[in-house]
Design goal:
- The protein has a domain of 86 residues.
- Helix content is 65%, strand content 0%.
- The protein contains four helices and no strands.
């Protein structure tokens, strides 16, 4: 039985790439949750998750390095906008003010930015992660 070097997984994928995908997946999920909070504050129904949105971290992992880097930077930028935006909306809501107009504006910005991030994926028509045996 061959030992797997600590820097790679059994599939031969560099270990740092696996942890990076997991971290991106967590950030992507957190952004989706934040978007649903904003939608609720805007008076909209929480959005369902499409297969493309759900699989985005796995799909981008298999894309060219420039696409991964662009997606990671864009996700960080969107998180940097959402965090203070949600804090401000929650403060408005806590004071009894109508936060719906501001929440709707943030929701529209979120949807637009999320669409731009997802457009970084190559157009392959594949909605699932690449499987290897």
């Amino acid at each position: 039985m061959n030992a797997v070097p600590p820097s790679t997984t059994a599939a031969g994928t560099p270990a740092f790439a696996q942890s990076g995908t997991s971290a991106m997946s967590e950030r992507w999920t957190a952004l989706a949750d934040a978007g649903n909070v904003v939608a609720t504050l805007a008076g909209l129904e929480a959005e369902g998750t499409s297969a493309e949105m759900r699989n985005f971290p796995a799909l981008i992992r298999d894309a060219e390095p420039w696409r991964r880097e662009h997606a990671e930077n864009s996700i960080a930028d969107l998180a940097a906008v959402m965090e203070p935006g949600i804090a401000a909306l929650l403060a408005l809501h806590a004071r009894g003010a109508d936060s719906r107009p501001a929440a709707l504006t943030l929701w529209r910005e979120f949807v637009s930015a999320r669409g731009a991030i997802m457009s970084v994926l190559p157009a392959t028509g594949n909605l699932g992660p690449r499987r290897t045996a």
